[in-house]
Structure formats: C-alpha cells, structure tokens
Amino acid sequence: MKVELAITLDRDAESSLQEQLAGQFRRAILQKRLVPGDPVPASRPLAQQLGVSRGTVVSVMEQLVGEGYLVAHPGKGHFVAALDHLGQSKNEKESRTSPAVLTVPEHPRPVLDLRPGYPWTQGLGQDPLWKSAWRKATADLPDAALHEEEPSGSLRLRVAIAEHLRRARGIITHPGSIHITSGTAEALVLITLTLNRIYGTAQIAVEDPGYPAARQALEGAGARVQTVPTGSDAGIAVEKIPTSVHAVVTTPSHQYPLGGLMSINDRLALLRWAERHEAVVVEDDYDSEFRHGRPPLPALSTLSQGERVMTIGSFSKVLTPALRTGYIYADGALGRELIRTRAGIGASVSYLQQVALAEYLESGGLARHIARMRREYRHRRDLLIRRLSGLAGVQVSATSGGLHAVLHTPVQAPQLAAQLRARGTEVALLSSYYAEGLPQEEDGLVIGYGQTSSVHLSQALGQIQEILATKR
C-alpha cells in the first residue's frame, strides 16, 4: 500500500539536495513513519514531485540500500528494510500487533562487527548484472579441459582484468601477463614458491605493521620473512630494507593498517633500490579502488623500466570474500616462472566462476558497483570522522582511502576494546598488526566500516563516545 510522505527540500541550505533527501528518508524510517515492507516512491515521479533530477533520487536510493535502510527488488522497486536489520528485534515488531504482550528480545544487543577487511556485500545479490553474469555462465558451461589448457586461468577473464587495470590504474598489459589466483594469500604463496625455485630459500621483506595473514602465507610457503618499519604518513622505509632480501612486499596505495600513502619520490626510490640489488617488488594494490578525496598515484608497475615489479590484486574487498578470486600481474621471465609454478600446482579457482566474473567485468557491472560503493564508503567514513574527530584527546587517521580507520584515544586500546566487546561491538587492536612489538605511541584501535550499515556504525560510534565520556 502506498504511503504518503511529506518531503521538503531547502535549496538555500548548506547541505546538498541529495543529503537532505537521504536524511528525511532515514528519519521517517527511524521514527516509524515508514515501516518494514513499505514501498517508497519510484524515482521518476518522486523527482518530478520534488523538482530534482532523477539521478539525484536514484543516488539516494542506492545510498539507502547500501546503508541498510532500504532493499531493492528488481522490477518492483525499493522497500523499507526489516527493522531487525536496523537494530530492532523480532519481538519489538510483533509487539505492534500484540501490544498487551510483554516480550523480551532473545538477543537484546546485536553484535556490531567493526573489524576491518570486510566489504559491504548485501546489495550485491540484488545487482541485475551480477545475477545475469552467473546465469549466462551456467547456461553455457565451459569445457572442463580448459582448466589444463590455460594454467594461468581463463583467457576471457584475463582479457577483462587487463582492460580493468588499464581503465582503473593506468597499467598497460596483455592477458599473457595476468595470472588468476584464489586471492592475495595464494598470490603470495605462488610468488614465494617461484622465488624458492630460483634462490633456494626466498628472503622477503614485509612492512611492519602489516597484514598478519600475508606474513603467515609467506612463511607457510617456505620464505624467510624480515620486517621493515613503516610510518603512518608514508610507505615502507626504503633505507631500512635489508640488502640480502630477494623481494619486498609493499602496500603503496594505502598502507595497511596505518593508511600511509607512498609518495612518488619514495616509489621511485624503492624501484631504484630493487634495480640496484636485483630484487623483486611485490605491489599489493590493496584499497586502490576506494580513494576518498585524493588523486591516485601511479602504480609501481607503471613506473618500473624493467620487469622487477609484480602487482597483486583481489576482488575480495571490492565484491565479496566469498568469491576468493584475484590475480598477479607479472611480465617477462618472472611471469614465465609463475606459469611453471601454477602448472605444477594446478588451478585453484573454478572455471565456471572465472567465466561469471569475466561476464560481470565485460558488462560494466564491476565499474558501476565500485562507483556505488565508493559513494557509500565515503558516507560512512565521513560519519565516523564527524562523530569522533571532535572528541578531546581523540585522533582519527588512515581515512584517505579504504574501508577502515585507526583510532587513538586517551583510554588504553585493550581496555576500550574490552568495554566495546561487553556492549556487543567487535573492533581490532592495532597491536595485532605488529610483528616486532607495538610502539607506545601507536596504542590504538582499527575500526572497519565496510561490512556494517550506517545505522549500526552510528550505534557503535555512540558506544565509543559514551565510554570516553566516562573517562574524563
């Protein structure tokens, strides 16, 4: 049944028309003027009613779907999401129809997961291009023998990834230099096994702090791992890289987890170091898709004059970890050695899955999804900064890109994390990313805002504010 909703927009206000419209829908839902299952007006008549462009309304709908306020049903329209998803229990919904019955929620406080490294996946299943890609892939099953004929992965997917890299990162490559993996961890294992065959035991430098799973993957594949200090305002300290290492793994676009951006001078210095010491640079292009208000810097592989750079990427943070698909871009002799390693191990990604992903890239679905999620993540990032930056003694960093922020507060991080956990909110300790021990000044939390709705994020930020208020 259609619900009449009075909406007014102030064209003289400082906030944009899109922000005003989204805000009025949120208030209507939270104040229960719109309830779960209610349809919202279609974009075209609503745009005409308000005197705004249809694109403005469509952007608001996409944003509210991403935040968890609305759900989209292709061919039917947008509807208010179930309130238990927005923090209201099932029993609270039933109490509307049975007001005399006193009920106690089974889970009075939903667990809010603010651990970093996970994207928002709830809208992906409603993406018509995503569903179409899987339908087409299953309708025309590929020949099973192609797994053996193409050890580097589906040629169609490698062509699509090469085009994606050209458009998104300015990397000019060809399908023969693309190698399909089951994600970042397997990419590092393949690279280590390849370097082990060349050097006996590969010695590999990694950033500290850095991604613990990356260190584990390298060590599990037989590498000798050495850590190199990394600052919060830059990338890996080139002058401190041991001269004995055969390779360096770095995250220059958005250092994980401190968020530093490696400057162009430091990137060139790292490449000169690698050339001088005949070492390989493994560029983990983590988070390069999600930049918040800053221009991109060139990928290391576009700056290298030789064949010493391998670029690894994954669709886990862009689409969903359930996909478990990534790639390595490696040219020349290193690329040929990678093919040998892959041929000896065998394929790790379903060929059917590769065909579906290729279809999604070719249709423009991935580019559109990234654009939608970039807007949504920027909204959540702005919410986090707005709620926490003004608090006494609080520092918020690592927010120039990606799906997380680093939070330093007057309260010791383990104590704050424990109090949040008692309230049903999970965060990560910055100390867990250090291999050589946490510097005292870096005691903090790592807060992810990728996999949680803005409603739940706001609840968790409110908890942090309450805890810090009691410590003054």
Brief synopsis:
InterPro entries: Aminotransferase_I/II_large (IPR004839), HTH_trans_reg/aminotransferase (IPR051446), PyrdxlP-dep_Trfase (IPR015424), PyrdxlP-dep_Trfase_major (IPR015421), Tscrpt_reg_HTH_GntR (IPR000524), WH-like_DNA-bd_sf (IPR036388), WH_DNA-bd_sf (IPR036390). The protein is an alpha/beta fold and 472 residues long.
* Count of domain modules: 3
| Total number of strands | 15
- What is the rounded distance between the termini? 50 Å
> What is the 3D form?
globular
How big is the Rg? 24 Å
The percentage helix is: 40-55%
Report the total helices: 16
Largest sheet entry: 7 strands, mixed
Q: Give the name of the CATH architecture of the largest domain.
A: 3-Layer(aba) Sandwich
CATH superfamily of the largest domain: Type I PLP-dependent aspartate aminotransferase-like (Major domain)
What is the highest CATH level, the class of the largest domain? Alpha Beta
If you consult CATH, what is the topology of the largest domain? Aspartate Aminotransferase, domain 2
Q: Quickly give the structural class.
A: alpha/beta
- What oligomeric assembly is this protein in? single chain
Spatial ordering of strands, largest sheet: 4-10-9-8-7-5-6
- What percentage of the residues does DSSP assign to strands (E)? 5-15%
- Poorly predicted runs are 85-110
Q: Write down the overall mean pLDDT.
A: 87
